[in-house]
Structure prediction request, 54 residues.
Amino acid sequence: MKKPTAEMKQRMCIRKRRYRTQGDALDAALIAGVERQRTAYCCQLCGQWHLASV
Ligand SMILES: [Zn+2]
Prediction:
């Protein structure tokens, strides 16, 4: 499997919803009922938080 390129990461960043804090991201997962399947990570591109599948 190829490593994701910077361009691919940027596309993912643009597609994904952004959260200002880790708490905001995890709250959103909780509300959606998917907190067990999601993890929050700090994005190096936008400096905000996204949710990723576990
Ligand atoms: Zn991002």
About this structure: Residues 13, 43, 45-46, 48, 50 surround zinc ion (CB under 6 Å).
